[in-house]
Amino acid sequence: MFSSRQTAEIIDKLIELTQHNHIVWRSQDPVAPMIGPDARVDMVYIVNHLGRNIRAYNQNFKYYLDEEKYVWDEQIIVEFVDDYGAVLGRLPRTPNAWDLLKAIQFQNPQINTFYDDLFKS
Amino acid sequence: MDEFLQLLTLNNFGSWASIAGLLTTVVTFLMLFGIKKKFLFRSSVDDHLAKISEISSDISSLLQSFSKNQKDIEELFALAEVELRAMQRGANGDLVADIKKSRKLIRRYTSKIHFWVNRDENSAREIKTGLSVVSAELYHHKKSLVIGK
């Protein structure tokens, strides 16, 4: 797959395109296998860019310390999927994936216009 | 032949051993400094990763509106440069190359001498991507340290 350098560059480019509204992410409900007894996902975001479906979401998952003890951890997953939602490939984990999720969430007009609506109305 | 045999005395062996010992001491000292830098870096990888990721994330949010936040972005670039300088001392391989590249971009962007350099959103995003690459390299470096590399 891609190297960590390429992944960081890809994600930064997606952030730029999102912030300039050149790509618009749609939200979807999570489906199995991304959710289950050991994993939770609140919302999934998907976009079609250059003919590829890209999906991003924050997954909370149980990290087992031994057979019974576990702690909840979280990770941002950015992956390519086909038209039916099957995973074609997943990008390696990089810290800037969190910034992508923030940019996607801020793209929601309900959120990004709140400041103006609150103080300028 | 006689002259050569005369040189093979215990006294001469002692002198050569002293010279070899001195060279070994110098080499050990030099290696010690390298090892010290390496261990200091290894012990602070978590700290560096947290700081550079935080700065990079803040810059990313500010780039939402470059013209409004240009001053704040430049301040964060200065902070990133300080952090990268501290990291460069113990880093090696691809990581050090990426750190040097990012520092060079930041210096060109913030320096008044490079007046011909465009201080626009594209060059700011180029620096931000450089920081993201450093932070990704550092993340994988941290993981390789965990498995004992």
TrEMBL record, chain A:
It comes from the Bacteria. This is Uncharacterized protein. It comes from Marinobacter persicus. The lineage of its organism: Bacteria, Pseudomonadati, Pseudomonadota, Gammaproteobacteria, Pseudomonadales.
